[in-house]
Design a protein that fits this description.
The complex is a heterodimer of chains A (89) and B (394). Chain A is mainly α. Helices cover 38% and strands 8% of the residues of chain A. Classes of the chains: A mainly alpha (89), B alpha/beta (394). Bound molecules: flavin-adenine dinucleotide (FAD) and FE2/S2 (inorganic) cluster (FES).
Chain lengths: 89, 394
């Protein structure tokens, strides 16, 4: 059966399941690899919603041996002013 | 998997993929081998600047100018959106001393044909309203540009593949075969490939590849940390560097004895805004081996430096931080060309902080050297032998 309605994996960036599968077929084996090819995880929520789903797809579709830790949790949103105040005030 | 290929390229960064594109364009048989993914090294962890005016007037600027010319039509040629944009750019000047150095720098660049000038603070603030009032002025060149380095790498790879290149990802080169001073092939984690030519495009890892055939290459990884802000309305015009960055790049001794933590980390401003609106704030220049962690001191020093020059950044939020490894060489120039004594072994690595800007011209030069034995300019000064022989020119 063909998927008629697109299934969105990354809602913020409107990236479909199909597009993620294409990225994996193209050689993506990490979240970063998928992100580079589709821009998934780069939306407003910074992947909080979609990262898990993509990891699951990567694990299903690829040889486990090829999977490498590739994610770095996003920095908590920080005001620049707060960072530079820090210790030396 | 292919068992033979005329040429094997090691490294799927912007340099390896560019060379794969230009070689297949000239009808060569090529396999590119990358141990992780495309753009998983420096080419996926860097800024987006194609800066001409930061280059030393001489061969470096000449290379950059040729690259800039190629960039104008590259997006159409690759049929891939690389987000190239001719934005212009400036280098911020903070002191009279820097102003004198930059005046001389600019004059020599103008003589080579670069469009660049010195602006006073008022003119500079007209272009870049966020600048601090303590600045003396800036340089300005309309020729600077931006490109998305990840899209560029993917675009070169896609176009190369269309022209027949084999691209093997998640495959590591573990050895190089030679006989009687002649390349025979490479050993990989997925079997051997016989070939006549090997091109070492492994960036900061190029010395490890060279070791496999007993060669020493004086490239070292130089970490750069970058901070990313949330998406904001257009705020930064073009590429922004600081003159201190240029001074640090070409005269590292001037800063050597400082105890300032920011200077010790080699922090120099690089500022630009992506098409989506995120501002990239950089960067450190550190020798910490192959470590790509981001650090708390890096975060703080980069932001202190940036807000001193552009105070308006203070109110913005940061969302991310990353680090990449620039392939550093002792004289700041890349190593490009065949290696004497091992027939069929080429190096194209060591572009340090300019690999994105110089990738098109590097691909062109290497493909010319392999196909025609010569190229459009004298590149003998870029040979590895400048470090190994008593070469008065180096
Ligand atoms: C913070 C920062 C900011 C920068 N900003 C800019 C900028 O604004 N403009 C600019 O022009 N340049 C910039 N640069 C420099 C630029 O990123 C580099 O010069 C360029 O990416 C180098 O490309 P490369 O292909 O040589 O190396 P890389 O992209 O590092 O590619 C080398 C590849 O070789 C692979 N490899 C290594 N060993 C093996 C093996 N044994 N087998 C198979 N594959 C292997 C690696 O996995 C890697 O993918 C910046 C760099 C940094 C770190
Ligand atoms: S759902 Fe993918 S970034 Fe938010």
């Amino acid at each position: 059966m063909k998927e008629k309605k697109p299934v969105y994996i990354c809602r913020c960036q409107e990236v479909t399941r199909e597009e993620i599968l294409e990225a994996i077929a193209d050689g993506a084996r990490t979240i970063k690899g998928v992100k580079n090819r589709t821009h998934a995880t780069m939306g407003l929520c910074q992947g909080r919603t979609c990262r898990r789903l993509i990891e699951k797809m990567l694990a299903e579709v690829t040889d486990i041996k090829e999977l490498k830790p590739g994610t770095r949790p996003p920095v908590r949103t920080l005001k620049i002013e707060e960072v530079i105040k820090g210790e030396d005030s | 998997m292919k068992k033979t290929s005329e040429i094997v390229i090691i490294g799927g960064g912007v340099i390896g993929t560019s060379i794969a594109y230009y070689l297949t364009k000239r009808g060569k048989e090529v396999v590119l081998i990358e141990k992780n993914d495309l753009a998983s090294g420096a080419s996926g962890a860097c800024d987006q600047d194609i800066i001409l005016q930061s280059k030393n007037p001489g061969i470096h600027l000449q290379l950059a100018m040729k690259s800039a010319e190629i960039y104008k039509t590259l997006e159409a040629e690759l049929e891939h959106p690389i987000e190239y944009e001719n934005t212009g750019g400036m280098i911020l000047i903070e002191t009279q001393e820097e102003l004198e150095i930059m005046k001389d720098f600019v004059k020599r660049q103008q003589q080579i044909g670069l469009e660049v000038e010195i602006l006073d603070l008022k003119q500079a603030r007209k272009l870049q309203p966020g600048l601090s009032h303590h600045l003396v002025g800036s340089t300005y060149s309309p020729q600077d540009a931006h490109v998305n380095s990840i899209e560029l790498t993917l675009g070169f790879a896609k176009a190369a593949r269309k022209q027949g290149a084999g691209i093997m990802l998640h495959t590591e080169v573990v050895g190089i075969k030679q006989r009687n001073g002649r390349i025979q092939g490479v050993k990989t984690s997925r079997g051997d490939i016989d070939c006549e030519i090997v091109i070492n495009c492994a960036g900061a890892w190029a010395p490890k590849i060279a070791e496999m055939i007993g060669l020493t290459i004086p490239i070292k990884p130089r970490r750069g940390q970058i901070i990313v802000t949330e998406e904001v309305a257009p705020y930064v015009m073009g590429d922004v560097l600081s003159a201190r960055y240029i001074v640090a790049k070409y005269n590292p001794d001037i800063l050597k004895n400082s105890s300032d933590p920011g200077i010790k980390l080699g922090v120099g401003l690089s500022l630009s805004q992506t098409q989506k609106g995120n501002i990239l704030i950089g960067a450190t220049r550190e020798f910490v081996g192959y470590n790509t962690d981001v650090t708390r001191t890096g975060l703080k020093e980069i932001l202190k430096n940036a807000t001193r020059l552009v105070p308006g950044l203070k109110g913005m939020n940061i969302i991310r931080m990353f680090a990449g490894l620039r392939p550093y060489t002792p004289d700041g120039l890349p190593i490009i060309g065949p290696v004497e004594g091992i027939e069929g072994f080429f190096v194209a690595a060591g572009h340090e902080g300019d690999g994105i800007a110089l990738s098109p011209v590097t691909g062109k030069i290497v493909s010319d050297l392999i196909v025609d034995g010569k190229t459009f300019m004298d590149v003998s000064r870029l040979a590895l032998e400048r470090f190994t022989k008593n070469n008065p020119k180096a």
